[in-house]
Amino acid sequence: MTRRLARFPFPFRADTYRYSTNVEPARVPVETEAGSWGTGILDVDDEYGPELAERAAVLDRDPARLQVLSHMRPACWDALHTVLGELAAQHPDRMSLERTGPDLVWRNALLGIEQRFTDGDDASLPGGPLGFLGSQVQDDIVLLDQREGSLWADAGIVTFAADWSMRFDVGMRFLEVHGPVPRVHEEGIISRAERFLMRLQPGQEYRRTNWTMSVDRRLDQSTEIYPEWGPDRRAIADADGDELARRLHLRVEVQHLVRLGHSGAVMFLIRTYLASLAELATVPAWRERFGRVLAELPEDMADYKGLDRFRGAAARWLLAN
User: Fold this and answer.
1) CA Rg value for the chain
2) CA 66 – CA 62 distance, rounded (Å)
3) CA-CA distance, 2 to 243, in Å (whole number)?
């Protein structure tokens, strides 16, 4: 059993899966057949350095993965103070945030940095407050503004999207962002989720999980680079059993939802985890459950998640091994 698999947030609690709000309080540990996860809202693990380096490379190639509408500057600073403070509280031996008047010092021994900056001065931080924050946490970050009876996706740094685009979605209503998802509108799931989020009080924290599948350990599956990863989804359907199990991954997002205390924005932290079918199969309960979920998944949901070409082969491999 690897350390990474012991902390993997296996998302299925039954042999079938349907969309739901599936929101629960944050910071409550979840015991699994392999270990546990969910103690904090941020998870600094063995992938910390490599994933931050990958985010930096993505942003070098495509700076538009960082989007901030002008009225969201206060929310970006609110997110920066909240998340850096959380990191320092979780890892006091390796990280600290000190303030002297308007001047602050952030130290992160894991990255070997000491960054001095001035509160509210975007130019004092590389990338501005949201860009710098994205260089310190493995999570993608989306900030929602609440006005006119709706939530609006008005800022974000998203380099590890699963077939969506922050550049395309910035400025959209919460309901519009989820427009293509099947079933959720007819069943009122997204409307209920938005009402729930709009009732969050400052400092309240919740979480949910979401999942899909990836070919290889590819975090960046943004719409902008579909030609780079889309063809693999077609080709993997013809792979033999060993290659299928090695290359196909269950991709799980742990999404934390936090009402920021000063700006009133809702912060989405989206952390992505990957585990191959071969890795999952080392935990017999996960192998069997994921196989049954894939076998039973309705066609429209499999099609939306992009699994239609290979989910049958994946289910057969899981249930046969």
Assistant:
1) 20
2) 9
3) 20
CB atoms within 10 A of CB 50: 11
How many other C-beta atoms lie within 10 A of the C-beta of residue 14? 9
Dump pLDDT digits (tens) for 208-243.
999 999 999 999 999 999 999 999 988 998 898 899
Q: Which structure tokens are listed for 204?
A: 């309240």
Question: Could you tell me the pLDDT band of residue 298, with boundaries at 50, 70 and 90?
Answer: very high
Q: What are the structure tokens assigned to 90, written together?
A: 């979780």
Buried b (16+ CB within 10 A) or exposed e, 197-214: beebeeeebbbbbbbbbb
Q: Is 208 a catalytic residue?
A: yes
What is the Cα–Cα distance from 40 to 117, expressed in whole angstroms? 26
Of 85, 65, 204, whose CA–CA distance to 130 is shortest? 65
Contact indicator for 234, 222 with CB cutoff of 8 Å: no
pLDDT in tens, 143-155: 999 999 999 999 9
CB-CB neighbours of 120 under 10 Å: 11
**116 strand-pairing partners:** 105
Burial (CB count <10 Å: 0-12, 13-18, 19+), residue 220: buried
Give residue-wise pLDDT tens across range 105-144.
999 999 999 999 999 999 999 999 999 999 999 999 999 9
Task: Please count the CA atoms within 13 angstroms of the CA of 114 that sit on its side-chain side.
Answer: 2
Distance of CA 119 to CAs 67, 105, 106, 109, 141, Å?
A: 20, 10, 12, 22, 20
Which helix (H) or strand (E) element contains residue 60? helix 48-61
- Annotated catalytic residue within 7, 167, 208, 292: 208
